[in-house]
Amino acid sequence: MEYVTFNNGVQMPVLGYGTYQTPPAITAVNVKKALDAGFRSIDTAQAYGNEAGVGQAIKDAGIARDQLFITSKANTDGYEETKQGIDASLRRFGGDYFDLMILHWPMPQSHESYRALEDAHQAGKIRAIGVSNFNAKQLDSLMADSTVKPVIDQIETHLYWQQQRMHAYLTQHDIIHESWAPLAETKGRELMNLPEIQALAAKYGVSGAQILIRFLTQQQIVTIPMSLNATHIASNFDTFGFKLTDDEMADLRQFDQHHGINGWPATMHEDRY
């Protein structure tokens, strides 16, 4: 495994397992598959409704809590609602702390919500705090009105939307760039079948998905692919046995279309910040 180091010194695996759209009833089984495959970073959220399943999978796997990195996301709005939401998330998860808690997306009272994260961080309930789906202007505003700097921004990032502009901003401000939809969701099969991706897959003896994941993790972009297939889960984890050359990385830049799959959220469009 490779790691990124947050601006507060906490380390996070650069590759994790995502649980977006994983039904609560089967979350525990599938997260257990990921843990068995070697994943130690798991991403969940209040909005997913599966925090309890993540906690159950950890119990079933019998892995010490301090060997894991667990992320959840708050989709509440305002200080009190967010404060209560953090405690409710911990109860559902069945643990004393999260390694990372982020605001799921910008809301009217994001600054107040972030203060609840700051207080939970101070209380030891969260080891690191950050945001998701925040553009540069929104981050500037948040940082000017907070005392704890966000450690991460989780934004849609994949071969078709490489977020080069936001990546430069985040790097400049010592904030880690994290990808959601690293395999481009509905466009995933299309990306994997690109001749250039297939050629690299043949060269390195891996799958197209493994090339797409490695393209991101080589840039120190935290990546959280999601799958319910045990074979694909194991394959997604097995992406550190090769390294793309500088020329190959440069060649893959040509596929950047500078926009997302579904255009959400509109504030992330590159003409909005």
Could you please describe the fold and organization of this structure?
The chain has 273 residues and is α/β, with parallel strands linked by helices. It has eleven helices and ten strands. An eight-stranded parallel beta sheet has the order 3-4-5-6-7-8-9-10. Strands 1-2 form a two-stranded antiparallel sheet. α1 crosses α10 (230-237) and α2 (51-61) runs parallel beside α3. It is globular, with a radius of gyration of 18 Å. The protein starts with a strand and ends in a 21-residue tail after the last helix. The relative contact order is 0.13.
Counting DSSP E segments of at least 2 residues, the number of strands comes to: 10
Going by helix content, strand content and strand pairing, the class is: alpha/beta
Uncertain parts = none
Order of helices and strands: EEEHEHEHEHEHEHEHHHEHH
**Tell me, what's the shape?**
globular
CATH architecture term of the domain at 3-185 and 220-226 = Alpha-Beta Barrel
What's the CATH C level of the domain at 3-185 and 220-226?
A: Alpha Beta
